[in-house]
Design goal:
Elements: H1 5-26, E1 34-39, H2 42-51, E2 56-61, H3 64-72, E3 78-81, E4 86-89, H4 95-108, E5 116-119, H5 132-151, H6 156-181, H7 189-214, H8 217-233, H9 245-252, H10 255-268, H11 275-305
Parallel strand pairs: 1-2, 1-3, 4-5
Antiparallel strand pairs: 3-4
Length: about 300
């Protein structure tokens, strides 16, 4: 029994870390610097920003068309049309965010009458709750880590090839499920498959490199970084602007959060705002390749000296 005490302690600590990370990030969502467009003069936007106590980053637009364009391009998360007493939201970006924004601005306009709300980019019938995206990404992260562990035990060229092959097959298979079978992420099959493959390949390369450099502990480090931290730090179904700011900052530089953003933007926003997500994925993939090449050079050096 005494020999099992360390295992019990470890299991308890892992459970606490898991709950602390997910629940800590996703409970009691509060907006911070949420970009919102306002149709009207800059002075009106400044007054509105002052009333909302810094929770929203207000940008003025000259007309409704420009504001709608900004919403479609992911420059803002909502648009206020004061003259029409109307709010435009995009629940496809985040159902919870749309709900919170609607509640805040409904209260702000209560004195002047009811606020009409239009969901410009709605969620599909296959995912009215808006949570499919988070679980879809988890369904990419786990295979990415798994293939990385397996590839890290093989010779580098074969391992890299296995990671790429797994990324393509997982991306295609999961896109087929998410789009064709369930209709939860519909209408952009090739884009969804491509981003999914890129995320799996990126994670696989990083994990493979870590396993080559530090051994089995690399798998544990990857699970900690990409699952226990990466998934909740992405904001999950809430979005990064509704979790603690320091946690969102971490999520912004991890491939899981940026991969999630890329999937939403490809499926629901015609591929808008993909520059940063793809740059982050490419950066992490380069890290994985660097680790792999470093491990290769160490092996060659050891063989030469031996």
């Amino acid at each position: 029994m005494k020999r099992l005490i360390p295992a019990v302690v470890l299991a308890t600590l892992i459970g606490m870390f898991f709950v602390g990370s997910f629940v800590g990030a996703l409970h009691s969502p509060e907006p911070h610097d949420v970009p919102v467009g306002v149709v009207g003069p800059p002075q009106a936007a400044a007054q509105m920003a002052q009333k909302l106590d810094g929770k929203f980053e207000i940008t003025s637009y000259a007309d409704e068309a420009a504001a709608r364009g900004a919403l479609a391009d992911r420059e803002v998360d909502a648009v206020v049309l004061p003259q029409q007493q109307k709010l435009l939201v995009a629940s496809a970006a985040s159902r919870s965010a749309a709900t919170v924004v609607t509640a805040v601005f409904t209260a702000a306009f209560a004195a002047t009458g009811p606020l009409a709300v239009e969901d410009v980019h709605p969620l599909p019938p296959g995912d009215q709750g808006g949570i499919a995206g988070m679980f879809f990404v988890i369904g990419l992260v786990i295979p990415g880590i798994a293939i990385g562990v397996a590839a890290g035990r093989e010779k580098a060229p074969a391992g890299i090839g296995a990671v790429v092959l797994a990324g393509v097959t997982v991306g295609l298979a999961n896109a087929w499920l998410g789009d064709v079978v369930f209709g939860a992420l519909p209408g952009a099959f090739l884009g969804l498959a491509g981003i999914s493959a890129a995320l799996v390949i990126t994670l696989g390369l990083v994990v493979s490199g870590l396993v080559r450099i530090i051994g089995p502990a690399g798998a544990g480090l990857a699970a900690l970084l990409f699952v226990l931290i990466g998934v909740p730090a992405s904001g999950g179904p809430l979005g990064a602007r509704f979790i603690p700011e320091w946690y969102a900052a971490i999520g912004n530089v991890l491939p899981v959060g940026q991969g999630s953003a890329a999937i939403r933007n490809v499926v629901f926003f015609d591929g808008a705002a993909l520059g940063v997500p793809l740059l982050v994925l490419a950066g992490w993939a380069a890290v994985g390749l660097t680790l792999t090449l470093s491990a290769m050079s160490q092996v060659k050096r050891a063989s030469f000296l031996g």
